[in-house]
Write a structure and sequence with these properties.
homodimer; alpha/beta; Barwin-like endoglucanases; Transferase, Pyrimidine Nucleoside Phosphorylase, Chain A, domain 3; Pyrimidine Nucleoside Phosphorylase, Chain A, domain 2; six-stranded mixed barrel; four-stranded antiparallel sheet
């Protein structure tokens, strides 16, 4: 059926089109069915919605995404033909049934996803099945290769180094310190990062506080050639476009299936021609990886997958019992990182980890005492100079300094209600609070921690501050923090079971008679947990 | 934010609304986020799409489904407030992680689904997780009860009998024979059926060829009081509305998760006050249930689930190696069934099974020799009279007879390419072919089988005929039938391995010299497979 286009400026996330109900009936088409859309310029598969009045008979309503993909003009006509489900639907069902997929099947699946040929319902069935049934290493390598094949790639003519953190640890912004150190040492590190799926904010979200993150393959390549380093958004470069399509259904579910996570990471590395890769695997009860044993298993998977993909991989299992550093959220993390680049040794955990990871990369390039060398580059100011150079090359704030970054307009301080030591600082609860405050979309949304695990806390002392860009989101985040209680303090005596009377929990404890100045000391140099 | 409504006549299947991108930004809302929509008349949760031009600032685009649910008028204003994800998203994740859900969690989940509070992405994650991880009997009973709670129920003041087939067997239209027999015997059988999910067509799809299937609870109750029996669509009665919402994402995936299937069946029975239930479980390599052992296990689940729900259940494990009867598709199955009601004893398999199942119900009501009695009622013409009475009560064709039903306009006959016995008649392949021909939406789409398993077939004899309402769908179905080869004939000698020369497979075989009239005899009385 030949239909006249009618532009509907709606972004539905799928290649949807709207048919008049009568036209649809004539073609025996119902909602969610597929049609081939054809002009002399292009031909794609669309998913049908039907309408009685929005489009007249003889018309076809075209959503923004479809309009752009087909490069339509206002007086174009489209030939619409009913078509069947793509083969991938049966392949997804095979994975739902717990079966291994062949190389060919994975190739077909990723081709269909890259072509936007699958509906959100089908994509969701895929990520859910993958989350539950997983994939073996052979399937994962095939998944990675297919994702690279249907996207852009960049070639460099010298060795490419890279860093990756598997995430799950709020505040873990080491990329913005490691990349400048490594680039300043003369190595090529065209780093790309992702946006948050279930975390508080991804490095790509943070970077956008002060510079562009979205580049074409050519632009990224040019910046890397000039500065040795980039800090960009992977998805903007059309490398492994399947990944970004998949993320759009993972995000509302807050899931990140294991094989998809591996392939997502490795496909971006493969597409930027990475030869040497350092991977940070934070371990803790509230990160993605719970135990060191699990971390080592995961590390081995990366190493083996690297072999199938021709990438030399080295992994670091790192401490993740509480948030890294003291900041969670785009603006607050940016400020913390730039202060370190400007010369601060605080928070120590951030400085130590960044230099360790940068050192690992320097050693992969054959340098000795990598960590020491990385720290020297950081302290010399060369890393900060390199950082400013990259920020300018990525179209960001010129001569950037930490005081040029704005915090959220609204804030609420949360105080300790009793004396004790900080016993809990929950990654998961802080992620939820920061997301409720508006992160990653609202740059000002975030939390600054004033206490870290093991520190003494006095009743009435500041525990953390919540920031937000909007009042209702601040309110929502504060309510959530009251419900989740992300921090807990405990005395040496955890509880008492009185036999003679009910214990008055509000009456003064030993704490109240002790030397306050001594307890208040939270000099970061004296606190190994900070 | 207070926004002016703008009606967009689009049926998206979700409670979607469109916000102007700038308004959305101001509220820090992005696509797929949730908002509460409030007028003085109603308050629901909507899922956001954003647009630059379709709606102006200060406007909110409302899709058909949302418009009707909120009972809006053209000059209404809606207060829009950002809101968080419903609790059910975490509950779905728990099932994805393979954990058992509590009574309370299942209640919350089904409440949210019934309220249309979940997006298609979330619903898909639920059915996929259920398909893979399943539920135990306690969870399934809770699921059933919750589905009943959030829907309409019907009370009758005398015992209610019912029939159910779990499906998976094409052509299995026994409902249209069993209900008239049981109702003619004076028992109350307010039967409701479902539409096809992955089958060729459901009983509710077939019924719509000649009468209404969609009734309110009151209407259904009134028809049942008057005629003793109904043959209606369950989903039209707003019993267990969650089920129909779930089916909308199961359908495009072609799945029907086990616990959801159990709950879907039993909730509809519970909501119509069923006391006694006969269940047909077809078993065969290409039905839902592969072996008799599996069928017995399934039957026990029904019996036990019935106990938790106060329904007396009896199951029949039935033969399902090939399609029931000779017809698959709405119109062709209708004709076959009415011919039996008119007096035909052909196809024998349909007559036998219908009388067995009806007899089982008569025996549950305390009558003796149920099958014999059922056959007597059928042969006496009382069942046909009752059928006509119900059809008229449901607003269908008056004095309906088989010759009033129209076949599809387009047809293609498929002939045998060699002599032999019919060795295969694939349920699954015929379902795919009939669906490709347009079933269940196109009533004329279908297949009539001319041969059944074990029958002699001569080269050039008619194997089956494909019908369709549209030419391109007929073409598609015929192509598919060539690819799938749903029927296969074999001689007594299945293959030969010649040592001296290549065998000429086209040269005449023993068949070609035998008495054709003898072989052609496919008198249904002489064929136990028909």
């Amino acid at each position: 059926m030949l239909l006249k286009v009618k532009k509907l400026d709606i972004d539905s996330g799928e290649f949807s089109v709207i048919l008049n109900e009568e036209d649809a009936k004539e073609m025996s088409i119902a909602g969610q069915d597929r049609v081939r859309l054809k002009t002399d310029k292009s031909s794609i598969i669309g998913i049908v919605l039907t309408s009685k009045q929005s489009v007249d008979r003889g018309e076809i309503g075209i959503f923004t995404k479809t309009w752009e993909k087909m490069k339509l003009n206002g007086d174009d006509k489209i030939t619409v033909t009913p078509t069947t489900k793509p083969e991938s639907v049966e392949i997804i069902k095979k994975k739902m049934d717990g079966l291994e997929l062949t190389t060919e099947e994975i190739h077909t699946l990723i081709r269909d996803i890259s072509d936007h040929a699958l509906s959100n319902i089908e994509l969701t069935a895929y990520v859910t099945a993958l989350y539950i049934n997983g994939m073996n290493l052979r399937e994962t390598a095939d998944l990675t290769k297919s994702m690279v094949e249907f996207g852009d790639s960049i070639d460099f003519d010298r060795p490419v180094y890279d860093l990756h953190s598997i995430g799950g640890l709020p505040g873990n912004t080491i990329t913005l310190i490691v990349v400048p150190i490594v680039a300043a040492a003369g190595l090529l590190i065209p780093k790309t990062s992702s946006r948050a799926i279930s975390s508080a904010c991804g490095t790509a979200d943070i970077v956008e506080v002060f510079m562009n993150a979205t580049f074409t393959a050519n632009e990224l390549s040019a910046i890397a050639e000039k500065t040795n380093g980039t800090m960009a958004w992977g998805g903007g470069i059309s490398m492994a476009p399947a990944d970004d399509i998949i993320i759009k259904v993972e995000y509302p579910l807050g899931i990140d299936p294991h094989p998809q996570m591996l392939a997502s990471i490795m496909s971006k590395k493969k597409a930027t021609g990475v030869d040497f890769l350092a991977i940070d695997i934070p371990v803790g009860p509230e990160t993605k990886i719970k135990t060191v044993e699990e971390g080592v298993k995961f590390a081995n998977e990366f190493v083996e997958l690297g072999k199938l993909l021709d990438i030399k991989v080295e992994c670091a299992i790192s401490y993740g019992d509480q948030p890294m550093g003291r900041a969670i959220g785009p603006a607050v993390e940016t400020i913390e990182v730039i202060k370190i680049l400007e010369g601060s040794d605080y928070p120590r955990s951030m400085v130590e980890k960044s230099c360790e990871m940068a050192g690992m990369i320097l050693e992969m390039a054959g340098m000795r005492e990598g960590t020491k060398r990385a720290y020297e580059i950081l302290k010399s100011g060369k890393a900060f100079k390199k950082f400013q150079e990259i920020v300018e090359a990525q179209g960001g704030i010129k001569d950037i300094t930490s005081d040029k970054i704005k915090l959220g307009k609204y804030k609420q301080e949360i105080y300790a209600s009793k004396n004790g030591y900080l016993k809990k600082a929950s990654n998961r609860a802080f992620v939820k609070i920061v997301r409720a405050a508006g992160s990653p979309r609202d740059h000002g949304a975030g939390v600054i921690l004033n206490k870290k695990l093991g520190q003494a806390v006095l009743k009435g002392e500041l525990l953390y501050t919540i920031y937000a860009d909007s009042e209702h989101k601040l309110k929502h985040a504060v309510e959530l923090s009251r419900k989740l209680k992300p921090m807990r303090t405990e005395g040496i005596i955890l509880d008492r079971v009185p036999s003679y009377s009910m214990l008055d929990r509000d009456k003064p404890s030993a704490w109240d008679y002790m030397d306050k100045d001594l307890l208040k000391s939270d000099d970061p140099e004296n606190n190994k947990n900070d």
